[in-house]
Write a structure and sequence with these properties.
There is one protein chain. By secondary structure, this protein is of the alpha/beta class. 31% of the residues lie in helices and 23% in strands. It starts with 6 loop residues before the first strand and ends in a 12-residue tail after the last helix. The longest helix has 17 residues. The protein has six helices and seven strands, in the order E-H-E-H-E-E-H-E-E-H-E-H-H.
Length: 204
C-alpha cells in the first residue's frame, strides 16, 4: 500500500474545511499562519488575493509544527468593485458600509489559492466569480447585521447563509464565493502530485 503525503490547510476558515470534506479531502493538520493582510499602496484586488494566498502558504510551511514532506494549501478571498477591495469588516459599522456599497450592484469575488508540494514547487491561481446583489433596504441590512453572519466574511456577507436572499444572479463558481473554488483547487493539488482521498494513508 502506498502512503499518502500529509496535507496542511493554512486556513482557520471552517467554510474551507467543510468544502474540502465535501469532496472527501481531509487535511491532516490545520496550521494558519498570521500575516499582515494590509494591501500595499496601489495594489489591485486580484493581485492582492494572489499575494496573500501565496504568503499564507509560505508562512504556514515555515511553522515549526508543519511536518516535512507535507503539501500546503492556502487561500484568501477578496470582494471587489472596480479597483476597490473589500476584506473582512472590522466591526458592524464597516459591515454596514460594505453592504450599502454592494446594494443593487454587481461585484466580483476573487479567491487566491496557493498550494506547495513537498519538493517546494508552488502554484498560485486566482478565481473570479461575478455576483449581482438586489437593492437592499435599510431594514434588510439592519436585520442581517443583527444576525452576526457578517463577522469574518469578506465583503461582510456569507452567500451560504441569509445573504443568499440578496443574490439576483451569479456567474462563475458558487463555491468560490463560499470560500474555496473546489474544481480549481483539486486540479492544483493533483497537478502537484497530491493523491487526495483516493489513496489510503498509513499511520504509525
Amino acid at each position: 500500500m502506498s502512503i499518502r503525503p500529509q496535507l496542511v490547510l493554512a486556513s482557520a476558515s471552517p467554510r474551507r474545511l467543510d468544502l474540502l470534506r465535501q469532496v472527501a479531502i481531509e487535511p491532516d493538520l490545520i496550521l494558519p499562519a498570521g500575516i499582515d493582510e494590509t494591501p500595499v499602496p496601489g495594489e489591485l484586488p486580484r493581485p492582492l488575493a494572489a499575494r496573500l494566498a501565496e504568503q499564507k502558504a509560505l508562512a504556514s510551511r515555515a511553522l515549526p509544527d508543519t511536518p516535512g514532506g507535507a503539501f500546503i494549501l492556502a487561500a484568501d478571498t477578496v470582494v471587489a468593485t472596480g479597483r476597490r477591495a473589500l476584506g473582512k469588516p472590522a466591526d458592524a459599522d464597516e459591515a454596514r458600509r460594505f453592504l450599502k456599497h454592494l446594494s443593487g450592484r454587481r461585484h466580483r469575488v476573487i479567491s487566491g489559492v496557493s498550494a506547495i508540494a513537498p519538493d517546494g514547487r508552488q502554484i498560485t491561481r486566482t478565481i473570479v466569480t461575478s455576483v449581482q446583489f438586489k437593492r437592499l433596504s435599510v431594514g434588510e441590512i439592519a436585520a442581517y447585521l443583527d444576525s452576526g453572519e457578517w463577522s469574518g466574511k469578506a465583503g461582510g456577507y456569507a452567500i451560504q447563509g441569509r445573504a443568499a436572499a440578496f443574490v439576483r444572479g451569479l456567474n462563475g463558481c458558487y463555491f468560490n464565493v463560499v470560500g474555496l473554488p473546489l474544481h480549481d483547487t483539486l486540479n492544483m493539488l493533483t497537478g502537484l502530485g497530491y493523491a487526495g482521498a483516493d489513496t489510503p494513508q498509513i499511520r504509525e
